[in-house]
Amino acid sequence: MPALLRGLARSGRDRSAFEVSCEVMVATGADDAELAAACTATRKQIAFYGSTPAYRKVLEQHGWGDLHPELHRLSKLGEWEAMGGLIDDEMLGAFAVVGPVDTIAGALRNRCEGVVDRVLPIFMAASQECINAALQDFRR
Protein backbone atom coordinates (compact mmCIF):
# COMPACT_ATOMS: atom_id res chain seq x y z
CA MET A 1 0.00 0.00 0.00
CA PRO A 2 2.76 2.53 0.71
CA ALA A 3 4.01 2.30 -2.90
CA LEU A 4 0.47 2.69 -4.24
CA LEU A 5 -0.12 5.75 -2.07
CA ARG A 6 3.20 7.30 -3.13
CA GLY A 7 2.36 6.71 -6.80
CA LEU A 8 -1.06 8.26 -6.40
CA ALA A 9 0.43 11.28 -4.66
CA ARG A 10 3.05 11.74 -7.39
CA SER A 11 0.40 11.59 -10.08
CA GLY A 12 -1.99 13.88 -8.24
CA ARG A 13 -4.70 11.23 -8.00
CA ASP A 14 -6.81 10.40 -4.98
CA ARG A 15 -7.01 6.97 -3.35
CA SER A 16 -10.82 7.10 -3.49
CA ALA A 17 -10.62 6.92 -7.31
CA PHE A 18 -9.26 3.36 -7.09
CA GLU A 19 -10.69 0.08 -5.92
CA VAL A 20 -8.06 -2.05 -4.26
CA SER A 21 -8.81 -5.78 -4.28
CA CYS A 22 -6.95 -8.42 -2.32
CA GLU A 23 -7.07 -12.20 -2.37
CA VAL A 24 -6.81 -13.58 1.15
CA MET A 25 -6.13 -17.21 1.96
CA VAL A 26 -8.60 -18.50 4.53
CA ALA A 27 -8.11 -21.62 6.65
CA THR A 28 -11.34 -22.45 8.42
CA GLY A 29 -13.53 -25.33 9.39
CA ALA A 30 -16.79 -26.21 11.04
CA ASP A 31 -14.93 -28.51 13.46
CA ASP A 32 -11.38 -29.20 14.61
CA ALA A 33 -10.72 -31.80 11.91
CA GLU A 34 -11.88 -29.54 9.08
CA LEU A 35 -9.88 -26.61 10.47
CA ALA A 36 -6.75 -28.79 10.78
CA ALA A 37 -7.14 -29.99 7.17
CA ALA A 38 -7.57 -26.40 5.99
CA CYS A 39 -4.45 -25.31 7.91
CA THR A 40 -2.43 -28.14 6.37
CA ALA A 41 -3.59 -27.23 2.85
CA THR A 42 -2.85 -23.55 3.48
CA ARG A 43 0.64 -24.29 4.80
CA LYS A 44 1.36 -26.24 1.60
CA GLN A 45 0.11 -23.36 -0.53
CA ILE A 46 2.24 -20.84 1.37
CA ALA A 47 5.25 -23.16 1.02
CA PHE A 48 4.67 -23.47 -2.72
CA TYR A 49 4.56 -19.69 -3.13
CA GLY A 50 7.59 -19.29 -0.86
CA SER A 51 9.58 -21.73 -2.99
CA THR A 52 9.36 -19.54 -6.08
CA PRO A 53 12.00 -16.86 -6.67
CA ALA A 54 9.30 -14.26 -7.31
CA TYR A 55 8.05 -14.58 -3.72
CA ARG A 56 11.45 -14.49 -2.02
CA LYS A 57 11.09 -10.74 -1.44
CA VAL A 58 7.77 -11.32 0.33
CA LEU A 59 9.43 -13.75 2.72
CA GLU A 60 12.33 -11.33 3.22
CA GLN A 61 9.94 -8.48 4.02
CA HIS A 62 8.54 -10.56 6.88
CA GLY A 63 11.96 -11.73 8.11
CA TRP A 64 11.69 -15.25 6.66
CA GLY A 65 13.99 -14.86 3.65
CA ASP A 66 16.29 -17.62 4.92
CA LEU A 67 13.47 -20.13 4.38
CA HIS A 68 13.29 -19.58 0.61
CA PRO A 69 16.38 -21.62 -0.40
CA GLU A 70 15.16 -24.66 1.54
CA LEU A 71 11.63 -24.40 0.14
CA HIS A 72 13.06 -24.01 -3.35
CA ARG A 73 15.34 -27.03 -2.89
CA LEU A 74 12.48 -29.19 -1.60
CA SER A 75 10.24 -28.10 -4.47
CA LYS A 76 12.84 -29.34 -6.96
CA LEU A 77 12.69 -32.72 -5.20
CA GLY A 78 8.87 -32.77 -5.17
CA GLU A 79 8.84 -32.83 -1.36
CA TRP A 80 5.51 -30.98 -1.02
CA GLU A 81 4.57 -32.51 2.35
CA ALA A 82 7.92 -31.58 3.87
CA MET A 83 7.60 -28.05 2.52
CA GLY A 84 4.27 -27.51 4.26
CA GLY A 85 5.83 -28.70 7.50
CA LEU A 86 8.25 -25.75 7.42
CA ILE A 87 5.42 -23.21 7.65
CA ASP A 88 4.89 -22.54 11.36
CA ASP A 89 1.84 -21.02 13.03
CA GLU A 90 3.29 -17.51 12.91
CA MET A 91 3.80 -17.69 9.15
CA LEU A 92 0.39 -19.27 8.66
CA GLY A 93 -1.23 -16.40 10.53
CA ALA A 94 0.76 -13.79 8.63
CA PHE A 95 -0.31 -15.03 5.22
CA ALA A 96 -3.80 -16.37 5.95
CA VAL A 97 -6.85 -15.68 8.07
CA VAL A 98 -7.19 -18.72 10.33
CA GLY A 99 -9.91 -19.82 12.71
CA PRO A 100 -13.24 -21.54 13.27
CA VAL A 101 -15.90 -20.64 10.72
CA ASP A 102 -17.83 -18.45 13.16
CA THR A 103 -14.78 -16.17 13.58
CA ILE A 104 -13.73 -15.77 9.94
CA ALA A 105 -15.96 -12.85 8.91
CA GLY A 106 -14.72 -10.74 11.82
CA ALA A 107 -11.11 -11.78 11.27
CA LEU A 108 -11.31 -10.84 7.57
CA ARG A 109 -12.78 -7.45 8.50
CA ASN A 110 -10.09 -6.86 11.13
CA ARG A 111 -7.34 -7.66 8.65
CA CYS A 112 -8.69 -5.86 5.59
CA GLU A 113 -11.01 -3.04 6.64
CA GLY A 114 -9.58 0.36 5.80
CA VAL A 115 -6.82 -1.21 3.72
CA VAL A 116 -8.62 -2.80 0.78
CA ASP A 117 -11.99 -2.18 -0.81
CA ARG A 118 -12.76 -5.68 -2.01
CA VAL A 119 -11.79 -8.93 -0.33
CA LEU A 120 -11.55 -12.11 -2.39
CA PRO A 121 -11.32 -14.96 0.12
CA ILE A 122 -9.61 -18.12 -1.07
CA PHE A 123 -10.90 -20.96 1.10
CA MET A 124 -8.40 -23.77 1.51
CA ALA A 125 -9.91 -27.26 1.87
CA ALA A 126 -13.15 -26.07 3.51
CA SER A 127 -16.47 -27.73 2.80
CA GLN A 128 -18.97 -25.83 0.68
CA GLU A 129 -21.25 -25.62 3.72
CA CYS A 130 -18.45 -24.00 5.71
CA ILE A 131 -17.65 -21.57 2.90
CA ASN A 132 -21.31 -20.60 2.59
CA ALA A 133 -21.56 -19.96 6.35
CA ALA A 134 -18.45 -17.77 6.37
CA LEU A 135 -19.61 -15.76 3.36
CA GLN A 136 -23.09 -15.33 4.85
CA ASP A 137 -21.53 -13.91 8.03
CA PHE A 138 -19.24 -11.65 6.01
CA ARG A 139 -22.15 -10.16 4.04
CA ARG A 140 -23.89 -9.04 7.25
From TrEMBL:
<dbReference type="GO" id="GO:0016705">
    <property type="term" value="F:oxidoreductase activity, acting on paired donors, with incorporation or reduction of molecular oxygen"/>
</dbReference>
<feature type="domain" description="Luciferase-like">
    <location>
        <begin position="6"/>
        <end position="117"/>
    </location>
</feature>
<dbReference type="InterPro" id="IPR011251">
    <property type="entry name" value="Luciferase-like_dom"/>
</dbReference>
<keyword id="KW-0560">Oxidoreductase</keyword>
<dbReference type="InterPro" id="IPR036661">
    <property type="entry name" value="Luciferase-like_sf"/>
</dbReference>
<protein>
    <submittedName>
        <fullName>Oxidoreductase</fullName>
        <ecNumber>1.-.-.-</ecNumber>
    </submittedName>
</protein>
<dbReference type="InterPro" id="IPR050564">
    <property type="entry name" value="F420-G6PD/mer"/>
</dbReference>
<dbReference type="Pfam" id="PF00296">
    <property type="entry name" value="Bac_luciferase"/>
</dbReference>
